[in-house]
Design brief:
Length: 399
């Protein structure tokens, strides 16, 4: 019950949380990535303090220094930046970024044009399903299309998820490489004024798009029912604007308008009308061969903040930091269990540090699971790094 706690308690609670619950050791090991290409001390951390003072270019050489820095500054927010060729410093304008995880940031506020259950900062179990789809699509693409293995998934603490790819090839990827991956993942284009935001052309679909559609299909009916994409006049009108063929659009409008408001039934009717129309109009099918898929993507495909992925020095919230507004811990989760996350079971600093809280035991367990998930990714990363160094000789330890 976050409501019964007071944000003012944070300044007393955070030092205890950092000392007792924050997985400092694994955190330092994760950030140092086997000390290559540079040691931990060259990694930038940034803190936001209680009075909104923002400290950049902080760094630590080991866990002990992290603990000291936590106790001294008591950050309300903890962000992670890039690895430089020198110790990060505000005064050094000649420092060069050498490495940085490839990161993805997905936030439910970017879904406000399609989600109908909540708006802005609010989030519930229904709209969380958009995150489940995003996680599955991105994770599969990173693993199967790019061969990445060391992928960390983190709940942002409020209404989104972050993905960190720590494979050496990902960390040392240059800007054009990052942009290419971001663009490859990005299928939804155009701002508010663009009605049809997905265009898949007329050729057979690329296997990665087909795979993404298969993932969306698993959830699509559920989402139609949860979100009622087509149930009101306004939503139906938005939907109809996506259909490029005027004759078809009118046919659909006429039928759907007279139907019960159930989005699932309306969708099924739409699919029937579309299929019949295409059977009778050879030119129509050529113009909108993948219309069904395009609409499903427009409603459900991940909406990425691609500037975060493209950028080298974009600071991103650290795993296990506390969201100052919700008190929630940015837990690490396994992508295959994204679906099982219940937002009110995400541990908060308040419930973790309050033995009398009814959620205490459950949240302690969930916190331990999150730390274990983190350890698994970090151990696997260290193993991959050790193998890579063995393969390419001992020169990787030069600083
Ligand atoms: Zn919701």
């Amino acid at each position: 019950m976050v409501g019964q706690y007071d944000e003012n308690l944070l300044s007393d609670m955070l030092p205890i949380y950092y000392a007792k619950l924050f997985p400092q050791n694994v955190f330092c090991r994760w950030l140092s990535c086997g000390n290559y290409p540079q040691p931990l001390g060259n990694r930038e951390l940034s803190f936001t303090l209680s009075d909104d003072v923002y400290l950049r270019y902080l760094s630590i050489n080991n866990q002990k220094e992290l603990q000291t820095l936590f106790q001294k500054k008591c950050p309300y927010k903890l962000d992670i930046g890039a690895v430089y060729n020198t110790k990060p410093s505000i005064g050094r304008h000649d420092s060069i970024i050498l490495a940085r995880e490839l990161v993805f940031d997905i936030d439910l506020t970017d879904y406000d044009e399609v989600r109908t259950c909540c708006k802005e900062a609010k989030v519930c179990g229904k709209c969380w399903k958009f995150m489940v789809i995003a996680c599955e699509i991105i994770h599969t693409a990173l693993r199967d299309d790019f061969g990445f293995q060391n992928i960390l998934w983190v709940f942002s603490g409020r209404r989104g998820i972050h993905c960190w790819v720590s494979d050496h090839e990902a960390r040392t990827l240059d800007s054009p490489g990052r942009s290419a991956i971001a663009d490859y993942m990005c299928l939804i284009t155009g701002g508010e004024n663009q009605n049809k935001k997905v265009n898949l052309g007329n050729d057979n679909l690329h296997s990665s798009i087909r795979r993404a559609i298969n993932i969306i299909e698993k959830y699509f009916k559920e989402l139609l029912e949860d979100q009622e994409f087509l149930s009101t006049t306004e939503r139906l009108s938005t939907f109809l604007k996506i259909i490029p063929d005027e004759t078809l659009r009118h046919q659909i409008e006429k039928v759907l308008d007279k139907m019960p408001t159930s989005s699932l039934q309306r969708w099924e009717s739409f699919v029937d009308i579309y299929n019949n129309y295409c059977k009778e109009n050879v030119t129509a099918i050529r113009k909108m061969k993948h219309l069904i898929e395009e609409i499903m993507i427009q409603y459900c495909y991940p909406r990425l903040d691609i500037n975060v992925t493209k950028g080298f020095n974009h600071l991103l919230k650290s795993p296990f930091s506390i969201h100052p507004k919700t008190g929630k811990v940015s837990i690490v989760f396994k992508p295959e269990f994204a679906r099982d996350i219940k937002l009110d079971e995400v541990p908060t600093i308040y419930t973790l540090l309050d033995d009398a809280s009814p959620e205490n035991a459950q949240h302690q367990t969930n916190m331990r699971t999150a730390v274990k998930n983190f350890q698994e990714v970090v151990f696997s990363l260290e193993k991959t790094e050790a193998l890579r160094r063995k393969k390419y000789g001992g020169n990787s330890m030069e600083f």
